[in-house]
Amino acid sequence: MPVPILKQGDVLIAFIQAALTDKDLVRFRDELGEAVGRWRSRAVVIDVTALDVIDSFATRTVRGIAHTARLRGARTLVVGIQPDVAFAMVQLGLTLEGVTTALDLEDGLALLEEGGQRGSSDAR
Amino acid sequence: MQDERVSIEHEADIVTARQKARELAAASGLSRTEQTLIATAISEVARNIVSYARRGEVVLALLEDHGRHGVLVVATDEGPGIADPELALKDGYSTSSSMGMGLPGARRLMDEFELETAVGKGTKITMRKWSR
């Protein structure tokens, strides 16, 4: 199942669906890195609202995606981590170091418009 | 509801196992947060099966004890086993490229966690989560 990547101005928005396999996530990482160059995107928003589980593999992949996009010159935001998923991540000891997070897509886009002056720049 | 048996061979089976666990946990009245903790723990142990043992299975069952409800998860494989189980349960230890959060993380997510393993024979992980 491919991850849909939406282009909105100079922002790419990717909606990660539930029940993605590891292979889907890895393919998504590669496609996104390429898409940032193709569209000359300044920012990438990864919406994980639909993910009902974020385990250590998914965390590592999302972190990898965010760092890849940043090395390609785009800011990356992860939005929509559900409260129970956030709690499970804390229990697991998982962190999204260096990845900006926002409550949801709306909040994430607002944060980008403000130039990211607000909020947690380091979700440690 | 009967026991659910999910054979784990491909990574897509990890998703199946955690979905079945969520259904079972919901049926036994566990909260959404508890369902997520169980599904995440299963994701970690099932991924270990795919990464290290190639194949195995996850068996899920409902538990009841003096009016308390819960979910039992038994993950077994006939893979290489774990040479140093104590080390494998330490945070940050991994023989692969993962973060080494899998087993210790799964243990923290569940209420009960037992690891039986023998080198060359396989691994059995028994976990339980009870409703609050």
CATH class of chain B: Alpha Beta
Protein structure class of chain B: alpha+beta
Query: Roughly what is the average pLDDT of chain A, rounded to an integer?
Result: 86
Strand content of chain A: 15-25%
Number of β-strand runs of chain B: 5
Order of helices and strands of chain A: EEHEHEHEH
CATH architecture of chain A: 2-Layer Sandwich
The CATH class of chain A:
Alpha Beta
Helix content of chain B: 25-40%
Task: Look at the helices and sheets of chain A and give the structural class.
Answer: alpha/beta
Explain how this protein is built:
- The complex is a heterodimer of chains A (124) and B (132).
- Chain A has four helices and five strands.
- Chain A is an alpha/beta fold and 124 residues long.
- In chain A, strands 1-2-3-4-5 form a five-stranded mixed sheet.
- The longest helix of chain A is centred in the first third of the chain and has 17 residues, at 22-38.
- Chain A is globular and about 35 Å long.
- With 132 residues, chain B is α+β, with helices and mostly antiparallel strands.
- Chain B has a single domain, classed as Heat Shock Protein 90 (2-Layer Sandwich).
- Chain B has helices at residues 11-27, 32-53, 85-88, 102-109; strands spanning 4-8, 56-65, 68-77, 112-118, 122-130.
- In chain B, strand 2 (56-65) and strand 3 form a beta hairpin.
- The longest helix of chain B has 22 residues, at 32-53.
- At the A-B interface, helix 2 and helix 3 of A face helix 1, helix 2 and helix 4 of B.
